[in-house]
């Protein structure tokens, strides 16, 4: 038998233990490969949004690959630890360190190669669906299929090199141990965990302090950083100290602890929590970040509103703007160069400010005749001192309250005795600023309070294709922000910031969160199978003294449920308080998208839990039937 055949038989004989590693690795390869296919798609070669999408996808690729390094390293270590006794026997039989290196490398390369093949096949099968979802979320044109040679080469080369490199690295964990230690494996008796009462209380106190600051609304200045630090520190000590302290307290509650199967799962869980404290901490923090980020993006995506501006480009020129004609000429030159057929509207207006609490918001005052001429809107007869308020598109989407009466300021920004009564608030007209329409007499009376301005509006079709020139002109116009006597806004840029960029972030963040979440569940699976042999021996001993199959199944189910859903529950709690800060900051109805997000991850977690439970119980019961 050759070493390659020996390695192959080792993999096939332990296929159930290797299954989670294989599936998770294949899933990481699938996500990486599909992102790479999207990244190198010929349709993304040109265009401002496409360049931003490529940068985001490139960052996602690196994040997935770096996380894959940590994931594969942890996975390989878990399997090597479970096979310590086997390696010890091989060393006694005369295998050399070099041959052991070849064996471990061959095994991991077999799993790695199969994972890469499965991931690439899965990526090719689901590529059309992935392209369709990506194009829909990013609101791009449908992306056709193509042969992704570049993505294929990077994926195969990168992941095979990763598996090979980490195989060489992990061999040192075996060589650093003596043969006796290897043969003993995980059989040495572990002392019962004894948590520190002080650290246990400290962990709970940190979490309580962080949550308390959120409830009180202290989320300004340095408070968010303090809350984050308290949460991270509190979470670590909660898993490593407080949770064990709580279980030890349950053991002292004799009427509960000595009732049926409770004595088994509580005793086992004390050791499992201690062994997996850092893993639970990491899973909780990663999951909380995934839940919060996805929930925020879903909420933001659902509240961006429409781009209901009457113009595709808006240029507001204030008095003394020496660059007005230069800028207008450049706008028109770029539109002509981009083959946009445009129409220009020149609108006379006055730029005024009013007192609202501690702020002085600006508003564009416009004669109702200008409104009828340029926006084709006829208003009911307005009385003197009355106005119709048209918020800008951002104000309209955020549903900010408009005061019933505007206390106007003069040109020196001092409170005047002039007031405007807001008769009605209507839908936005432009994005560059809010508008208040008044009758001709009121406009003439109040015009001197503000600054004479002129609004230039450009209308043209195909405005989404103007993002590149919009960004280019915006950067040139504002330069170093000195001598700025104008405002410039485009529908394409506003749409990009409010819709396309959050959509891109949601698209990338969702898949990265899924990768992280899948890996977190796999970590728990690996830890369980690392201790499988020890658990089999323990349950065999318990079966001999009368433990029934039903009681064993219940004990295992309770333990697995706590291992899988305890970090999940802590992550959900962190996420709820994180979203609470958004409510304090003025976001409304954040719970619906949050529960949708958590519900999706919970369904995935339940499915994974059921699969692991079935596999684990089958292994335990199969061992018990062996005479």
TrEMBL record:
It is found in: Cell membrane. Its main location: membrane. It is a multi-pass membrane protein. InterPro entries: ABC-4_Integral_Memb_Prot, ABC3_permease_C, ABC_permease_BceB-typ. The chain crosses the membrane at residues 18-40, 60-80, 109-131, 151-174, 195-214, 226-247, 279-298, 504-526, 560-582, 594-612. Keywords: Cell membrane, Membrane, Transmembrane, Transmembrane helix, Transport. Residues 63-178 form the ABC3 transporter permease C-terminal domain. Pfam families: FtsX (PF02687). Belongs to the ABC-4 integral membrane protein family. This is ABC transporter (Permease) efflux of cationic peptides.
């Amino acid at each position: 038998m050759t070493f390659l055949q020996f390695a192959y038989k080792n993999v096939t004989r332990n296929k159930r233990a290797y299954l989670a590693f294989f599936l998770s690795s294949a899933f990481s390869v699938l996500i990486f490969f599909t992102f790479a296919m999207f990244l190198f798609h010929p349709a993304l070669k040109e265009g401002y949004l496409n360049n931003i999408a490529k940068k985001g996808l490139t960052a996602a690729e690196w994040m997935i690959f770096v996380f894959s390094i940590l994931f594969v390293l942890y996975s390989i270590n878990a399997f090597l630890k479970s096979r310590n006794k086997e390696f010890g026997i091989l060393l006694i039989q005369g295998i050399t360190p070099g041959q052991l290196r070849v064996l471990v490398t061959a095994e991991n390369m077999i799993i790695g190669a199969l994972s890469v093949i499965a991931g690439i096949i899965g990526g090719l099968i689901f590529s059309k669906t992935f392209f369709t979802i990506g194009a829909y979320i990013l609101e791009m044109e449908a992306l056709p299929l193509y042969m992704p040679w570049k993505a294929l080469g990077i994926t195969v080369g990168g992941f095979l090199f990763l598996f090979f490199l980490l195989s060489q690295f992990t061999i040192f964990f075996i060589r650093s141990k003596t043969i006796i230690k290897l043969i003993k494996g995980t059989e040495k008796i572990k002392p019962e965990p004894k948590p520190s009462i002080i650290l246990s209380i400290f962990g709970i106190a940190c979490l309580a302090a962080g949550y308390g600051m959120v409830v009180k609304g202290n989320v300004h200045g340095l408070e968010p950083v303090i809350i984050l630090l308290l949460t991270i520190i509190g979470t670590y000590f909660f898993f490593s100290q407080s949770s064990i302290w709580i279980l030890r307290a349950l053991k002292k509650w004799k009427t509960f602890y000595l009732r049926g199967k409770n004595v088994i799962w509580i005793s086992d869980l004390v050791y499992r929590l201690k062994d997996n404290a850092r893993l639970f901490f990491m899973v909780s923090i990663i999951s909380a970040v995934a839940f919060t980020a996805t929930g925020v993006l879903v909420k933001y995506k659902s509240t961006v509103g429409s781009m209901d501006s009457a113009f595709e480009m808006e240029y507001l020129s204030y008095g003394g703007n020496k660059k007005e004609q230069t800028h207008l000429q450049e706008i028109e030159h770029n539109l002509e160069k981009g083959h946009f057929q445009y129409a220009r509207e020149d609108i006379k207006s006055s730029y005024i400010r009013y007192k609202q609490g501690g702020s002085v918001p600006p508003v564009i005052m416009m004669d109702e005749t200008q409104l009828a001429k340029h926006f084709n809107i006829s208003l009911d007869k307005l009385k003197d001192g009355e106005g119709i308020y048209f918020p800008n598109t951002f104000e309209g989407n955020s549903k900010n309250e408009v005061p019933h009466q505007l206390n106007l300021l003069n040109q020196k920004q001092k409170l005047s005795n002039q007031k405007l009564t807001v008769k009605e608030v209507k839908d936005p007209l432009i994005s560059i600023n809010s508008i208040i329409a008044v009758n001709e007499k009121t406009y003439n009376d109040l015009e001197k309070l503000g600054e004479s301005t002129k609004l230039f509006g450009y209308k043209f079709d195909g405005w989404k294709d103007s993002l590149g020139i919009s960004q280019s002109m915006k950067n040139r116009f504002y330069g170093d922000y000195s001598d700025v006597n104008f405002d410039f806004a485009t529908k394409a840029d506003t749409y990009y910031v409010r819709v396309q960029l959050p959509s891109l972030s949601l698209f990338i963040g969702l898949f990265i969160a899924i990768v992280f979440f899948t890996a977190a569940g796999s970590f728990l699976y690996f830890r369980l199978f690392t201790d499988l042999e020890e658990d089999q021996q323990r349950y065999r001993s318990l079966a001999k003294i009368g433990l029934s199959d039903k009681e064993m199944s219940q004990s295992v189910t309770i333990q697995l449920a706590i291992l899988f859903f305890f970090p999940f529950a802590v992550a959900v709690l962190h996420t709820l308080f994180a979203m609470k800060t958004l409510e304090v900051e003025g976001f409304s109805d954040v719970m619906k998208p949050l529960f949708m997000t958590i519900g999706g991850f919970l369904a995935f977690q339940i499915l994974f839990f059921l699969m692991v439970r079935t596999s684990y119980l089958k292994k335990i019961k199969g061992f018990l039937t062996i005479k």
